[in-house]
Amino acid sequence: MIAALAGGVGAARLLAGMVQIADPASISAIVNTGDDIELHGLHVSPDLDTVTYTLAGVVDPTTGWGLAGESWQAMDALDRYGGQTWFRLGDRDLATHMFRTQMLRDGHPLSEVVTAVAQAWGVTVHLLPMSDDPVRTRITLASGEEVAFQDYFVRLRHSVPITKVRFDGAEQAEPGPGVLAALDAADAVVVCPSNPVVSIGPILAIPGVRIALERRKATVVAVSPIVAGAAVKGPADRMLAELGHEPSAVSVAELYSSFAGTLVIDEADAALAPRIEATGLRCVVAPTIMVDREAAAHLARAALDAL
Amino acid sequence: MIAALAGGVGAARLLAGMVQIADPASISAIVNTGDDIELHGLHVSPDLDTVTYTLAGVVDPTTGWGLAGESWQAMDALDRYGGQTWFRLGDRDLATHMFRTQMLRDGHPLSEVVTAVAQAWGVTVHLLPMSDDPVRTRITLASGEEVAFQDYFVRLRHSVPITKVRFDGAEQAEPGPGVLAALDAADAVVVCPSNPVVSIGPILAIPGVRIALERRKATVVAVSPIVAGAAVKGPADRMLAELGHEPSAVSVAELYSSFAGTLVIDEADAALAPRIEATGLRCVVAPTIMVDREAAAHLARAALDAL
C-alpha cells in the first residue's frame, strides 16, 4: 500500500510513473483542493482533474493539464460576451466541471464525485480529495491585496511578488474520507514533487494530516520539486524566495523535516546533499526530471527504494 | 412603440418578422422566464436565448432553438460520466449560460444579463425578462407528481398527460425593470403566438401585468398559436385539452378575452371567427404559419394593422 500527497502536474506525472511499478489499486493519492475555484457557477478542481486525466492517459501532453485534442468553442464564444476567459476551460473538460457541480448540488460530497469521475476514465488509483470541506488557498500580494489562488496563479500568471499564503477554511476542515486511514495503512508515503507552499501546504494544513505523517516519519519520502534552484514547473522557486526561503532543495528539506524521513533530490543538486542531511532527512540523489513515462517510473522506483 | 409578450420559438419568429416592419429599438419584448432552469450549476433561460439568437440571426433554423452550426463536445463528454444530457447544451451556447451565471453570481439582476447578451449579439430590440425574481413553472402530471417545467417539456418530451400548471414564486415576483412601463407606453401590445398556458401564462401571473393589459385592452392584439386544432410547435394543444379547454383558437380567445381586444387566427380557422367574436374579441384572419422571414413580417404587419 502506497499513499501519495499530490498537487498538479508534477504529482500527476510521478503517479503515472508509479502505476507502472505498483498495482494502481494499491495506491491512494491525497490531492490538494486548495486550488479549487468556482467559475461561471461551475466547481473546478484543477489538481484533481490533472491527476485524473494524466492517469487516464488523456491529459494534454504539452500543457500538462486539460484534455488532449480539446476544442475551445465555449471559451471563444465567452469572449464574445467579454466573459471571464483567463481560466481556460476546454469544451470536453467543461463536462467534468458540469458533472461535478451537479453532483455537489445533488448533495454528494466531493470525494464521491472524484470517485465517479475516476471510474468513468478507468482510473483505479484511489483518488482522495484532501477534504470534502471547502479550503481555499489565499495569496497576499506585495501590494497588500489578498487574492484567490487562481487569481494569482492563472490570471496574474504568478508574475507578481507575494508576501503571505494562507489556507482559508483549513482549520475547520475534516480530512477527506479515507485520507487518514490511507496515511496510517500505507507502507510508504510519497510526497510528490509539487509546490511545497501551495500544493503540499494545503494538504498539511488539514487537521490530522501532518501529525499522521510525523507518526510514521521514517517511511515518508519526498521528491524535491526544486532542481538547480528553479521549479521544474510553476512559481515554487519564486514563492519560496518571496516567503523568505532559499529557492533550493534545501528549503524543501527544511519545510518537510518534521514529517519526512527522506528527500529525493535531482542529480544536478547532488552537492546539496550534506546540507539536506543536516536538516535531519536522508538524502537520495536521482534523476528527477520526468521527461517521459519511463523517467517517471524510474523516479517512482527511486523514491520507493529510498525507504 | 410596440410591446410584445413572448415565449420561445413562435414568439422569436414573430419578433424577427416585426423588426422588418418596425424600428427594432421601438420594440420591447417581455419574455417568459418560467422555463428557466439550473443545470450543472448553470442558469439556463431557454426563452430569452431563443428570442435573442433568433433576432441575432444565429439560431439553429431546424430546431428553432440553440445556435446554428453548434458543436456538442461537452454533451458528448458528459455522457461519459452518465451526466444529465437530456437537456442539450451546445458548446457555444454553454458560454451564454456561463456568462449569465457569472453575472448573476456577481450580483447583477437577470435583466442586466439579458441586455449584455443582446448587445453582444447586436440585438437592439429591448429584451425584458418578465421578472428578475425567480418564477418557476411547475407541472402536475396525471400521476399526481409535480415536476419542473423542463422535466415535463424536455426530459419527458411532453408526452405525459398533465392536470395542473402553477407558477412558483409568481405572486412574490416583481415585474422586471421596464416591463410595466413598456406595457403602458406602447401604442400596441402584441401577445405572440406562444403557448397560452406555459409561455404567456407565467408573464400574466406577474403581479401588475394582467391589469396593465386590461387597462389598455383595445390595443392588445394576440396571435393564436393554435391552428386547425393543433399547436404549430409544442404541446399547447394537448395541454389545453388536458386542462379542460377545447384545443382550438376559441380557447385562446377565451383565455385572453379579459385583456386582449383582438385575436389573429389562421386562415385554416376562418370558420371559428364567429365563436371567437362571441368571446368579445375582434377576430382577424391571416396566414399565421411563419414558413420564412417574409411570412413572419407579413404576420407582424397583420397583427399591428389589426388595431
Structure characterization notes:
The structure is a homodimer of 307-residue chains. Chain A folds into two domains: 2-63 and 97-132 and 174-305, CofD-like domains (Rossmann fold), CATH 3.40.50.10680; 136-168, no CATH class. The first copy, chain A, is 39% helix and 19% strand. The first copy, chain A, has helices spanning 9-21, 46-55, 73-80, 91-105, 110-120, 149-155, 179-185, 196-205, 209-214, 236-242, 249-256, 273-278, 293-305; strands at 2-6, 27-31, 37-39, 42-44, 126-129, 136-141, 146-148, 162-168, 188-191, 220-223, 226-227, 230-231, 262-266, 282-286. Chain A has a seven-stranded parallel sheet, sandwiched between helices. A three-stranded antiparallel sheet of chain A has the order 7-6-8. In chain A, strand 3 and strand 4 form a beta hairpin. At the A-B interface, helix 3, helix 4 and helix 5 of A face helix 3, helix 4 and helix 5 of B.
Structural shape of chain A: globular
Q: Order of SSEs of chain A, N→C?
A: EHEEEHHHHEEEHEHEHHEEEHHEHEH
Number of helices of chain A: 13
Q: Could you say which structural class the secondary elements and strand pairing of chain A correspond to? A: alpha/beta
CATH class of the largest domain in chain A: Alpha Beta
What would you say the CATH architecture of the largest domain in chain A is? 3-Layer(aba) Sandwich
**Side-by-side strand order of the widest sheet of chain A:** 5-2-1-9-10-13-14
pLDDT average of chain A, as an integer? 97
Strand content of chain A: 15-25%
**Assembly state (oligomeric):** homodimer
Radius of gyration of chain A: 18 Å
CATH superfamily of the largest domain in chain A: CofD-like domains
End-to-end C-alpha gap of chain A: 14 Å
Strand tally of chain A is: 14
